[in-house]
# Entry
Amino acid sequence: MAAGGVVYILFREPVVFTRLLFANPDILPLIRLPHNLWCDALRYQASDALWCSALLTYATSLDSKELRMIFMSIPPLLECGQSTGVIPGTFDIADLCTYALLSIIFVLK
# Structure
């Protein structure tokens, strides 16, 4: 989860996450990357994939199947909450695809 946070801090414009951690997130050392497929994937999908993987790794260590399912549903529910405005943030269908792909990998594993 820390690695995902570092991606937000170094490569993304200030968002709710960084505003909660830092009094003035505008002073953070934002590293500018060119706009291409790989850099955009790092900038926008890597942090989500990292924190979702950390959550799914924790979920697989739980004995209760019901608790595992609850933990696995958190990322898509948060994203859906962003789409309705209940949770602050920006809805992105690519995030949902990332969560679905990671969930499939973890279930198959």
